[in-house]
Amino acid sequence: MTQPTQSILDKYPEFEATIGIEVHVQLKTNTKIFCGCPNSFGDKPNTNICQICCGYPGTLPVLNSKVVDYAIMTGLATNCSINQSSYFARKHYFYPDLPKNYQITQDKTPICFGGHVTIPTGENQTKTINLMRIHIEEDAGKNIHSPAGYSLVDLNRAGTPLLEIVTHPDISSADEARSYLMQLHALVRYLGVSDANMEQGSFRADVNISIKKKTDTQLGTRAELKNINSFKFIHQAIEYEIERQIGIVQAGEKVAQETRLWDSKQHKTYGMRGKGDAADYRYFVDPDLPELIIDDEWIDEIEKKLPELPQQKLVRFQSEYKLTAYEAGVLTSDKDLADYFENTAQICKQPKLASNWILRDVLGYLKEQKLAITESPISPQHLAELIGELDKGTINSKAAQTVFAEMIASGKAPAVIIEEKDLKQIGSEAELEKIILEIIENNPDNVEKYRSGNDRVFTFFVGQCMKATRGKGNPKIITQLLKKHLA
Ligand code: ZN
Ligand code: MN
């Protein structure tokens, strides 16, 4: 969810920012894009490699059709048109982790073009971020620079399939940038095309930022922020970069066109390398790969397989479960969380209560422990049972908190915990009445005070009852009986 924050631009009302974002998404296919090597992260260096992904002379790449499926899927989910005839191109540059000395990518004919993503920008407000293109390409390997002064090359990543998703420069603040990235991140995870793990680099954002005075007609010089691996840091880096560029312009100097990195400890960006106008990559159509033709049937088939998307789920959660836009927004921000909620709600038949418990207690605990919803020690089944016991009146809400804590600690079912800890609420009127009459008899002074108009003593009596029942009295019945006997 977007938390509206104060924008750094509020401090400089005469300036505006122009931001465009390129995201590289690693696709979750079993094998690499042009060979049969396993596409997996974290294995021993240079074990998932062959002559093709190492670029030996004389080898020929063969396109993995799953990559095309995933590209079409992502294109359809972002309202793109699908290019039914596209080509692969060679992008030439030298880098030790790129043994062919060119990257296979798409140049003039991206597989998807047009399209847009809608982002929330405030209470009931949205903005459309237009996409320029989505194209297919291969990832490079990885250089590992040792502090001892030498470098190693791991080619396991070489040939990992990527989608590069490029926006128009439609984004105008750090909030919007973060909101777009979170939306896109949730989308590729919903589609199941990527695990989009930012720390492992399977969802990488490059952010181009420039600023200008609102009265200027020409765009400012842009700097590119690279390799930032969390939404929070991206937001901080953009805010910093906007203010840095404004400072340069206000001092009458020129912003340099360069790539910059974010130092999350010192909270500042720093220059990594200058970047002239698009280096000459000598793109040309790769003669080793045929034209990629996608017929209508292929697109139809993928369209039929599209799962429910975050936006659709958001609308359905509000109508089907009567949740607020905020509640539905949080619950659908992640597919696993949405599933957790629906499983719980279906078992306990109390969607509103399920939403309350998940948003407040479950997410509160997971956040504190830095756990994902899939790592929750409480299953939807157990949470639903707890909600059921509370709703039936077997336990009161204080005892429910005790049960919740014990479910986390022991993983036991709520019914077992209620039995073992003797938490059943005392709901019998006769039993409670006996206790209440005794308390009234023992506290004549407070009874007098209450009867002469001091309403605040009422909480004293409720407290006494809870104490006498060791927290297990049904508060509703206690209140009714107290009102009756104190009157
Ligand atoms: Zn290979
Ligand atoms: Mn790229």
Primary descriptors:
487 residues, 20% strand, three-stranded antiparallel sheet, ten-stranded mixed sheet, alpha+beta
Written overview of the protein:
The chain is α+β, with helices and mostly antiparallel strands and 487 residues long. It is 40% helix and 20% strand. Strands 1, 2, 6, 7, 8, 11, 12, 13, 14 and 15 form a 10-stranded mixed beta sheet that branches. A 3-stranded antiparallel beta sheet has the order 5-4-16, with no helix packed on it. α7 (335-348) crosses α8, α9 (380-392) runs antiparallel to α10 (397-410) and α12 crosses α15. The longest helix is centred in the middle third of the chain and has 20 residues, at 231-250. The protein is elongated. The model has no long low-confidence stretch (mean pLDDT 93). Zinc ion binds at residues 32, 35, 37, 49-50, 52-53, 159.
Structure in a nutshell:
It is built from 15 helices and 17 strands. The protein has 487 residues and is of the alpha+beta class. Helix 14 packs across helix 15 (475-486).
